[in-house]
Amino acid sequence: MRLLRSTDLALRVLMRLAVVGDSTPTTREVADDMRVPYTHTAKVVAELQHLGLLDARRGRGGGLTLTEKGRGESVGAIVRSFEGEGDVVECEGDTPCPLVSACRLRGALRRAQEAFYASLDPLTIADVVAGPTGPVLLGITSRPRQD
After folding, report:
1. Long-range contacts of 85-92 (CB under 8 A, 24+ apart)
2. What does the pLDDT look like over 24-78, one tens digit per residue?
3. What is the C-alpha to C-alpha distance for residues 114 and 117, in angstroms, rounded to an integer?
4. pTM above the 0.70 mark?
């Protein structure tokens, strides 16, 4: 299974915010740090804010901060939110698969997808930024740290 780019970026943004301490980077700074387009980052940040996982404040003194919900949210729940509830393969699209009525593969793939999510459910953003990841995340900033 391959994650959507937006799912990958959402996880990286949350991880980045989990290690910045009291600093409040802007969406543009996070995009630059992650080396991804600002517009894509802005869309992901808007969805993360909608989910209550981060706060975004505009203007002087504004920026992004991770919420307590964001710090403790299950990685599996975040991935589900961004990936959606669809099947791994599309069996009934514009050109339905001729095996759809008797296929055993679809159920096996659904179980594999659920096992994937279940393996991520116990992990939180706080868990995935624990050493050695946290120090590496701190090192990728394009601006001086505020200690």
Report:
1. 87/113, 88/1, 88/112, 88/113
2. 999 999 999 889 999 999 999 999 999 999 999 988 878 999 999 999 999 999 9
3. 5
4. yes
Question: Residue 20 is which amino acid?
Answer: V
Tell me the C-alpha to C-alpha distance, in Å, between residue 132 and each of 23, 57, 127, 137.
Answer: 21, 30, 11, 9
Query: What residues form DSSP beta bridges with 66?
Result: 54
Plot region of 79 (φ>0 → left; ψ -120 to 50 → alpha; else → beta): alpha
- Computed over its alpha carbons, how large is the radius of gyration of the chain? 18
The 8-class DSSP code of residue 94 comes to: S
Separation of alpha carbons 111 and 108, rounded Å: 5
